[in-house]
Amino acid sequence: MVGVLRLPMPILAKNQLLLQADVFARGYGGYNTRWALFLLHHIFPLESSKPPLATTVFFGANDAALSGRTSERQHVPIEEYKGNLRKIVLHLQECSPTMLIVLITPPPVCEEGRRAYAISLYGENASKLPERTNEATGQYAKACVEIAKEMGVRDGLHLTPEGNAVVYQEVIKLFNEAGLSAENMPYDFPHHSKIDFKNPQSAFQKNVCEL
């Protein structure tokens, strides 16, 4: 089982690991790390007998929204953001000391694109001041890398299809390096070639690891 806190990259991972693992995508649009803390115990209960083998944590784009601008309600001060990432990592480590945890930095902002989008929604009433900038987001990205190094875990907005592909390739690379490659993972149920069409039940009575 692979747990994920953001979409849409997990959809690509789900296709890659289709027969080897359950990929749970938990993407909450507009959420920041402050709000995500309220979900931790629901998404990753400590009493779970089957915690995820790996989890990617993809936060920061909303936390980096500028204070005093139109998306101020999503803003989280950078020191709080770092503290929240620590809490998320500690909780996941408590769920499973062996879990592979990957922190993904917030991506660059297309400032012109966001401005054009605001104008399309609000016309002349759109704010002339950006509510997100590359400068601010870059600071949160650096903070994310700092926490990853501090906590001893891996470091790796809504991306374009090309951007999602890049993130996906990097995450799969980390999974492979940690021994979680699709080729080396057992199927949860038998491959179709292992099923005897005359006696299909027999294929499901074997130990999955033997398949």
Descriptive overview:
By secondary structure, the protein is of the alpha/beta class. 38% of the residues lie in helices and 9% in strands. The chain is built from seven helices and five strands, in the order βαβααβαβααβα. It has helices at 9-16, 33-36, 40-43, 78-95, 111-122, 134-151, 161-177; strands spanning 2-4, 23-25, 54-58, 100-104, 154-155. It has a five-stranded parallel β-sheet with strand order 2-1-3-4-5, with helices on both faces. Helix 4 (78-95) links the parallel strand 3 and strand 4. The longest helix is centred in the middle third of the chain and has 18 residues, at 78-95. The chain is elongated, with a radius of gyration of 20 Å.
Rounded radius of gyration (Å): 20 Å
> What is the percent of helical residues?
25-40%
Global outline? elongated
Going by helix content, strand content and strand pairing, the class is: alpha/beta
Number of strands: 5
Low-confidence stretches: 1-14, 207-211
